[in-house]
């Protein structure tokens, strides 16, 4: 299925857990156009304004496979990210989420390392391994693309 980004109004408000919209599977991006660039710019602004670690497009009402994330003072936007491999060793850390009230933030167990394939905003393909804070935030945001929230996980 193809979604026309220009027909979707990205919201400034963040959808909160309980909204059925957040539970759908976001669709792949097929067009790497100005609308995609504008969406990513908007998402980066929200992450900066909210001092968040990351954001998935669906959290602002746009159900496409786009995430932005920050760690180690750097930022990364990923289009159509796929986790291709995870390390069979887990790490437990506290996680927050703009779509979840702070009272429900929790420790989450995740693979300590993962390999991800993705495209950038002009469609170039990338593959890289991530660990530490990067592995955590990227796995969290990619969960959103499949409708999964930290509240689905038992506190670790
Ligand atoms: Zn989140």
Verbal overview:
- The chain is 20% helix and 31% strand.
- The chain contains 2 helices and 7 strands, in the order αβββββββα.
- The chain has helices at 34-50, 132-145; strands spanning 54-56, 66-71, 74-86, 90-95, 106-111, 113-119, 125-131.
- The strands form 2 sheets. A 5-stranded antiparallel β-sheet has the order 1-2-3-6-7. It has a two-stranded antiparallel ribbon with strand order 4-5.
- It is globular, with a radius of gyration of 15 Å.
- It starts with 33 loop residues before the first helix and ends in an 11-residue tail after the last helix.
- 32% of the residues are buried.
- The chain binds zinc ion (ZN).
- Zinc ion binds next to helix 2.
- One of its GO terms (molecular function) is metal ion binding.
- Its cofactor is Fe(2+).
């Amino acid at each position: 299925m193809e979604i026309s980004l220009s027909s979707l109004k990205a919201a400034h408000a963040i959808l909160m857990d309980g909204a059925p919209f957040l539970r759908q599977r976001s669709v792949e991006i097929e067009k790497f156009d100005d609308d995609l660039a504008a969406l990513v710019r908007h998402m980066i602004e929200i992450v900066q304004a909210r001092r968040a670690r990351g954001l998935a497009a669906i959290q602002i009402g746009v159900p496409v496979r786009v995430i932005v994330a920050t760690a180690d003072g750097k930022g990364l936007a990923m289009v159509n990210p796929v986790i291709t491999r995870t390390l069979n060793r887990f790490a437990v850390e506290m996680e927050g989420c703009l779509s979840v009230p702070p009272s429900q933030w929790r420790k989450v167990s995740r693979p300590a390392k993962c390999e991800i394939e993705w495209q950038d905003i002009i469609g170039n393909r990338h593959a890289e391994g991530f660990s530490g804070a990067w592995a955590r935030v990227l796995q969290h945001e990619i969960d959103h693309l499949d409708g999964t929230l930290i509240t689905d996980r038992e506190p670790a």
